Amino acid sequence: MATHRHDVLVIGAGNGGLATAARLRRKGCPDVGLVEPSTRHVYKPLQNYVGLGLADASELERPQADLIPDGVTWHRTAAVAIDPVTRVVTCADGTEVAGADVVLAPGMAIDWDAIPGAAEALQQGWAISTFDDALLDRAWERIRTMQRGTAIFTLHGQPASGRETAMKPLLLACDLWRRTGVLDAIDVTLVHDEPQLHAIAAIDAEWRRHLDDLGVEVRLGTRVAAIEGDEVVLATDGVETRQHVDLLHLLPPYVASPLVAASGLDAPSTDGFADVDPETLRHRTHPRIWTIGDTAALGDARTGGALRHQTRIVVENIRRQRAGDDLDRYDGYTVAPVATAKGRLSFAEYDRSGSLRRSLPARVRDELRAHRAWYVLDRHVLPRLYWRGIVRGRA
């Protein structure tokens, strides 16, 4: 079978894949291929707002065909394996596609089976998640009708897609319950498997301020080990306890795309994620394979804000490597946009050194403190920028 060959081949047409393909074309790359089976494209950061009744589901997605950049060849199939030496990709439909350079951006997958009983509890409806667009209507109905009882929200360390934004459903739900007069009748707990809410003290303190104001109990070093009936099994330092719960919001467990391990692009320490240099985004062993987004083992928070910087770095580094120039460096920039109430949001930017960052001029108000301006930015401005600019390589 003949192999379709491209100058650059991008695998995955999510946020990062589309933006990379579009940037490559805008920078003059003559032949870009894109491997992606999905016919719909979801703007994931809006899922929490839909699940809390603050956005309409119609705003979530667009047809994938409407977003494929001009001049990009779309292979409407899934990549199942890559020969990392020849960079020939075997696809699910039997075709073979190759790239002089390959950019991996297939994302990662939700794995509900990692928590025994989770799939059944989600099906029954008392367990919910605003990170799965198939469950958003059910999530909003459950939160909206909650009048009393016990609610548990979960947070966990990496791997997680948009981990920090799991604070959104917790704080927005509590804000709704306060505004409707039922918060005092609901015992709310945040369960987090790490020893601190956030590694950066200023972000941790800002989150704590809102949790304390709402009366939320925080249990650190604790995870949901299983769900049995209407009880959750919580594990803390190896000790398990059982607790009845009326509403359980889960940040999903995630696993790497099987494509990475099937192609030998992971490492023993990366749990199936691509073994790449976290600064150049180039594979440590195969220098013409690059990885961005959730697929990459970077040690940084996996967010859409991070992807904007990563796509720029990868496109520039492909050019620089071909020219024999020094590669550009990604500093781990990411962002934690957390809505603290309807109409208010904390917009924390930081990098892998643990330093807070600002993308807006210093004269603009403190981004870390919740404010209406940051809510408008996250809820209304960024979705428009996403569809019109980011995935089109313009922002």
**Uncertain residue ranges:** none
Number of domains: 2
CATH superfamily of the largest domain: FAD/NAD(P)-binding domain
The count of strands amounts to: 22
How helix-rich are the residues, as a percent range?
25-40%
Report the CATH topology name of the largest domain. Answer: FAD/NAD(P)-binding domain
Q: How would you characterize the largest beta sheet?
A: 7 strands, mixed
> Which CATH class of the largest domain applies here?
Alpha Beta
**Structural class by sheet pairing and helices:** alpha/beta
Shape: globular
C-alpha termini separation: 39 Å
The average pLDDT score comes to 95
The CATH level-2 architecture of the largest domain is identified as 3-Layer(bba) Sandwich
Count of discrete alpha- or pi-helical segments spanning 4 or more residues: 9
- Fraction of residues in β-strands: 25-35%
Q: What is the radius of gyration computed over CA atoms, rounded to a whole number of angstroms?
A: 21 Å
Report on the structure:
With 395 residues, the chain is an alpha/beta fold. The protein has 2 domains: 4-108 and 256-332 and 386-392, FAD/NAD(P)-binding domain (3-Layer(bba) Sandwich); 111-254, FAD/NAD(P)-binding domain (3-Layer(bba) Sandwich). It has 9 helices and 22 strands. It has helices at residues 15-26, 47-51, 118-124, 136-145, 167-179, 201-214, 258-262, 304-323, 372-388; strands at 3-11, 32-35, 40-42, 61-63, 72-75, 79-83, 88-91, 96-104, 108-110, 127-128, 149-155, 186-192, 217-219, 222-228, 231-236, 239-244, 247-249, 254-256, 289-291, 334-341, 344-350, 356-357. Strands 1, 2, 5, 6, 7, 8 and 19 form a 7-stranded mixed sheet that branches. A 5-stranded parallel sheet has the order 10-17-11-12-13. The longest helix is centred in the C-terminal third of the chain and has 20 residues, at 304-323. The protein is globular, with a radius of gyration of 21 Å. 46% of the residues are buried. The mean pLDDT is 95. Residues 6-302 form the FAD/NAD(P)-binding domain. InterPro entries: FAD/NAD-bd_sf, FAD/NAD-binding_dom, Sulphide_quinone_reductase. It comes from Agrococcus jejuensis.
